[in-house]
What we know:
This protein is an alpha/beta fold. Helices cover 34% and strands 28% of the residues. The chain has helices spanning 46-53, 76-86, 102-113, 118-131, 147-158, 177-194, 205-208, and strands at 4-15, 18-30, 35-39, 61-66, 69-70, 87-90, 165-169, 197-201, 213-218, 221-227. Strand 4 (61-66) and strand 5 (69-70) form a beta hairpin. Magnesium ion is lined by residues 46-47, 169.
Amino acid sequence: MSLISCQGISKIYKMGEVEIKALNNVSVEISKSQSISFIGPSGSGKTTMLNLFGVLDKPTSGTLKVIGTDISKLNYVERAKFRGEHLGFIFQNFNLIPVLTVYENVEYPLIMVKSIPPKERKEKVLSLLDAVGMLDQKDKLINQISGGQKQRVAIARSLTTDPKIVLADEPTANLDHESAYKVMSLMKRLSREIGTTFIFSTHDPKIVKEVDITYTIEDGVLVNREERNN
Ligand SMILES: Nc1ncnc2c1ncn2[C@@H]1O[C@H](COP(=O)(O)OP(=O)(O)OP(=O)(O)O)[C@@H](O)[C@H]1O
Ligand SMILES: [Mg+2]
C-alpha cells in the first residue's frame, strides 16, 4: 500500500479577487521506508505540498490519500486526531519548549496523545534519546544545547508516537552545513532502522544526495524524480 497516494491534486489559495495556483495537477505515490525530499525554488509549492501530506490542509481538487485515508473526507477535528495518531512533524525552528528539559520535550507528545504506563513511557523516551545520540544531554534545558542538537531532540520527539510518516519542512535551514549533514544522516538511518518514512523539503543540494528519492517542483508542478541507491 502507498503511504501517500496523490492523484491530480491542485491547491489554489484565494486572496480576495486574486487566485494563486500553488500546486497544479500533481500526482505522486510514496511507499514505506524511504527518505524523500522535495526541492525547488522559493514559491514553487514545497510547503504547500508538505502541508497537504501532513493533513494540515486540504487540496482544492484531486484525491489525496494518506495511509489509505481520503483526507478530504475528514473535518477539522478528525484531521487533528489523524495527525496525532499517524504523523510526526519536525520544524525549521525546532518548536521545542524552552522551559522543559531535553527529556521532557521528547516525553511531551506521549503525555498529550497516548496513555501509556509511566515505566513504558520512560523506556521509550530513553531509547529514542539514545537513538539520536542525546542521552547524555537529557537533563539540559533546550537553551543549553546547540541548533544541531535541538533538531536531534525534535527528531526524537517526532518519533515518540511511532508515526508511519514524519514530515519536515526545511528541517536543516537553520543549521550550519555540518550539523545539517548530521541531522540528515540521522533521519536516513532512522528511516532504515525503524521503518518510518521521512518526507522533507530542502534548498540544500548536498543534503539531497543523502536521500532515496528526490522530487523537483517548479511552479507547482513536479518536473523530475530522481532515485538513488545510497
Ligand atoms: N496561505 C497562503 N495564501 C496565499 N498564497 C500562499 C499561501 N501559502 C503559499 N502561498 C503561495 O503559494 C505559492 C507556493 O508557496 P509555498 O510556500 O508552498 O512555496 P515554497 O516552495 O515552500 O517556498 P519557500 O522555498 O520560499 O519556502 C507561492 O506563490 C506562495 O506565495
Ligand atoms: Mg516553504
